[in-house]
Request: fold
Amino acid sequence: MKTIFTILILISNLTLYSQENKAVGDYLLSIKTNESDLKEWKLTLNENGTFFFHYYSNVKFEIPSERNIYGKGKWTMKNNVISFYSDKQKDLDEKHTLNFNNSKARFVIKSPRDKTDKIVKTRLHFLESEIFWMKGTELFKI
Reply:
């Protein structure tokens, strides 16, 4: 009985780990206008549960015209919802100023049960964030 219970726990842990592994990688949203203005959001989810975020903006009629904003911290995934955490002591400094606490994003992939030819881009859809311009943003896996 103990052996069966141990095997079930190991299988469930492997299943949870494999779900998080699918989310690991780089995500990007890049918007370029006809006036050569560029806005770019890049998020990297690492296997060790850390993340790195970079926002780049190069807009002619903004002051300053070029901006780089960074953030970093830890992430966890449960039921295809990724939660982000930034420790004010460790993760926030002069360079990394974005606080991702209370940010949640849905991990969207094509369902394994969907056998159609429909193309669903793997992406993160930010559902909640204290960073007002992140809420509703979709970053696509590259």
Summary: The chain has a mean pLDDT of 88. The radius of gyration is 18 Å. DSSP finds one helix and nine strands in the chain.
